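R.M. (postdoc): so does anyone remember the format we settled on? I'll just put the structure tokens first.
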């Protein structure tokens, strides 16, 4: 790994004179939570966050001070996830189940059943709907920020989130009254179930 370059005058934010790279650490919990929602595996999510941060750090000269650092980092993380996913699509899977047979799982506990059902249901959604729900519903992104992160129109994010919310409600067998609280319940369930609870 190369040593970080010296901070020049143009790397500092005009108002505070501080290096915008110092702000990265404040976004780590949200980046990790988003990565977990994409990967559905904490180990892979941690690797994804690390890869995204290495890319961001090495290309920080492309970041424009005064713009939205959070959206820039989330975009890098999202693009890294989909690039890795395309690479894995060409890999050979464990079709005979030898590796899967060696894996063990912890027993589900009553307190985690609802979270497990939610995570399973989220895992069944298409990636675009899941990421829109996570960004807007659980991470608190505005529709505009989510659209910038995903590289699409605001209407597309709204549509993906609504379709995802309806599909999630159907998978969880919720009635119309329950779907209005789906976003806040999802936020609570996702954030309370993650290591290093952020709330």
């Amino acid at each position: 790994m190369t040593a970080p370059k010296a901070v020049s005058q143009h790397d500092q934010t005009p108002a505070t004179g501080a290096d915008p790279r110092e702000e990265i650490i404040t976004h780590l919990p949200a980046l990790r939570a988003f990565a977990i929602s994409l990967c559905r595996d904490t180990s892979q999510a941690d690797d994804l966050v690390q890869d995204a941060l290495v890319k961001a750090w090495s290309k920080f000269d492309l970041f424009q001070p005064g713009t939205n650092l959070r959206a820039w980092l989330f975009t890098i993380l999202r693009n890294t996830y989909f690039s890795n996913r395309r690479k894995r699509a060409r890999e050979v899977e464990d079709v005979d189940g030898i590796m899967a047979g060696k894996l063990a799982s912890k027993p589900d506990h009553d307190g985690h059943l609802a979270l497990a059902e939610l995570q399973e249901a989220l895992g069944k959604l298409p990636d675009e709907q899941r990421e829109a729900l996570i960004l807007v519903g659980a991470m608190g992104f505005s529709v505009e920020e989510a659209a910038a992160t995903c590289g699409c129109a605001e209407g597309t994010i709204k549509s993906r989130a609504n379709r995802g919310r309806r599909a999630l409600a159907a998978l969880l067998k919720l009635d119309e009254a329950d779907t209005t609280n789906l976003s806040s319940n999802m936020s609570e369930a996702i954030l309370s179930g993650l290591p290093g609870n952020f709330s």
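R.M.: ...and that's the designed sequence above, right after the tokens. Also worth knowing: The CA atoms of residues 168 and 174 lie 9 Å apart. Residues 69-89 form the longest helix (21 residues).
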